[in-house]
Specification:
about 290 residues, alpha/beta, Rossmann fold, 6-stranded mixed β-sheet, 6-stranded parallel β-sheet, 10 helices
């Protein structure tokens, strides 16, 4: 991206940004992006928007009508939002899921910043290389698609997807076969699959606030000393991570991915360098406010 591009400010000189999802009350995106706007010296606001599935089209058209500059998309809308895009970037097209939308001269342009943000965080905070590793991804929804795509570009030895329904895991694996050794199984195969894992990644919402006593799989099946990662960032340490830490695992929470994917989205919207550290501080502060 050319960050020297002049800001194409709306006539009002004020940027409207937001995030749509269900649930959405837990989101730290408003705290992060409002801090980023302030740090970057850009006038605007970023708001959380609770959107039911049957109201998705109305919400998207409403934001377009109100001259929003763009918005983030979270659970459960990352795949369904595709129907309303005028254009997709390469990653969103291949992944089949969108987490960032830019509204440019009335056109809705979809991006996926989840995968690249996640891999950057994982490599910086937990494991320096993914090449040659046996990776297990739990979940086969919109978030998983972005993660699987970015992970396979890192050339793991194998990538296995576990999901409540085997059919959905197998379908996702088939979509990405061209990129590497990837297979899908029912979560009922967790014990056998996890026994071979070097890295386990939860991409589901199981364990997210307020249901913090849940785990996507039994940690009895997690091998000692591997890397266990969770995309959830609220709480900062999920029960999956806490239990895995007791098995001497290297744990990796969702905060880094959240900050990096947000920074990339911010740059798509505004064409200025995202203030990453200010964004990270704002998210951490929001947990204690």
């Amino acid at each position: 991206m050319d960050l020297t591009t002049e800001l194409a400010r709306p006539i009002s000189g004020y940027y409207l940004l937001g995030v749509i999802g269900n649930p959405i009350a837990h989101s730290k995106s408003p705290a992060m992006h409002n801090a980023a706007l302030q740090e970057a010296g850009v006038q605007g606001a970023y708001v959380p928007l609770h959107v039911e599935t049957d109201q998705l089209q109305a919400a998207v058209m409403g934001m377009k009508a109100m001259n929003f500059r763009g918005f983030n998309v979270t659970i459960p809308h990352k795949v369904d939002i595709l129907s309303y895009m005028d254009e997709l970037d390469d990653s969103a097209r291949f992944i089949g899921a969108v987490n960032t939308v830019v509204i440019e001269q009335g056109r809705l342009i979809g991006y996926n910043t989840d995968g690249v943000g996640y891999v950057r965080s994982l490599k910086e905070e937990a494991v320096p290389t993914i090449e040659g590793k046996h990776v297990v991804v739990i979940g086969a929804g919109g978030a998983a698609r972005g993660i699987v795509y970015a992970l396979l570009l890192e050339r793991p030895q194998s990538l296995t997807i576990l999901n409540r329904t085997a059919e959905k895991a197998e379908e996702l694996a088939k979509d990405f076969k061209v990129l590497g050794n990837v297979n899908g199984y029912s979560i009922e195969s967790a014990e056998q699959v996890l026994a071979q894992a070097d890295i386990v990644i939860n991409t589901t919402s199981v364990g997210m606030h307020p249901h913090t006593d849940q785990t996507p799989v039994s940690t009895l099946y997690i091998p000692e000393g591997i890397v266990v990662s969770d995309l959830i960032y609220n709480p900062l340490e999920t029960k999956l991570l806490t239990d895995s830490k007791h098995k001497n695992c290297i744990i990796h929470g969702g905060l880094g991915m959240f900050v990096y994917q947000g920074a990339i989205a911010f740059e798509h919207w505004l064409h200025v360098q995202a203030p990453v550290e200010a964004m990270r501080r704002a998210v951490l502060a929001s947990f204690t406010s």
